[in-house]
Amino acid sequence: MAVDQRDQPHWLYFPADPRLLGRELHIAEAVISLNDDSRDCSKPALSTLPKTELQKYIGRKFPRAPQYGTPIHPTLADFGLTLPDSSVQPLQISCDPDTSAWNGAWLIPIAPDRLLTNYDNNGYVLVLRRRQGTDPIKPSFACGNAQSTAEHAICTSAALAGYDRSVTAAYRRALSVSGDDAASVRQEQLDWLKTRNACGADAACLEKNMRDRVDQLMQQ
Fold first, then answer.
1. Global pTM?
2. Which of 212, 127, 200, 94 is closest to 163 using CA atoms?
3. pLDDT value of position 97
4. Domain ends where: 129, 157, 186?
5. In what order do the strands lie in the sheet with 41-42?
6. What is the pLDDT of residues 53-96, one digit of tens each?
7. 135 lies in some domain
8. Most confident listed range (95-99, 100-104, 135-139)
9. Is residue 136 part of a domain?
10. 95 with 33, same domain?
11. What is the pLDDT of residues 110-142, one digit of tens each?
12. How far lies 197's CA from each of 19, 34, 42, 81, in Å?
């Protein structure tokens, strides 16, 4: 997750935002989907946009409101993107029907295993890496110490492990801003863990439970 560091008042997300941490984008002939509860793009078609320099493309896609001392077009460095300003071939997505937020979104392949994208025109760039079959599954806890059925299920799914990391990141953020309510936040988390564990090995239940918990924690 990369955001314009010089345009913080307009942030919808922030760097390493728990709401998108560990999410998986699936690109297939029949559908494009991101497991963040957004609407899938059905029957996707990719069209080629004119070649351009990466910095020029990002700058034009995310113009800032005019203000004294700040350029209208951000740079790669403003987004914290340590990438060369090389020539790129952006791709535009079309969906059928066109009700998905992915309709009109863009993708920029920057390496065989990496791409940049933004699917709703808000001021951030998703930096995505292709997952390999040999990549380890990494939840927020050591799988060797997993105890509950739910924890064992999380340790068998990269998607669930991503949600688990999201919950942990959101919980730590909530604690950091809780002040005198820290004890209450800790107790709520303990109570929630009981609810999560009640899902057992039900992947759909675990995913919804963790997604809802992230949303709750981010509202604190």
1. 0.84
2. 212
3. 85
4. 129
5. 25-27, 31-34, 41-42
6. 999 999 999 998 887 678 899 999 999 999 999 999 999 999 99
7. no
8. 135-139
9. no
10. yes
11. 999 999 998 776 778 999 999 888 889 999 999
12. 21, 25, 34, 38
Query: Whats the size of the chain, residue-wise?
Result: 220
| Dihedral class, residue 48 (left if φ above 0, else alpha if ψ from -120 to 50, else beta) | beta
The residues that bridge with 34 in the sheet, in sequence order, are 25
Instruction: Answer whether 143's CB lies under 8 Å from 153's CB.
Output: no
Q: Which H or E element spans position 33?
A: strand 31-34
Q: Which of 117, 124, 135, 220 is nearest to 176 (CA)?
A: 220
Cα-Cα end-to-end distance for the chain: 21
Whether residue 67 contacts residue 2, with contact meaning beta carbons closer than 8 Å, is answered with no
* 86 lies in the same domain as 153: no
Range of the structural domain that residue 14 is part of: 2-129
- Per-residue model confidence (pLDDT) at position 36: 78
Query: Does residue 134 sit within a domain?
Result: no
- Amino acid sitting at position 56: K
Torsions phi, psi for 158 (to 5 deg): -65, -35
Residue whose tokens read 């564990």: 197
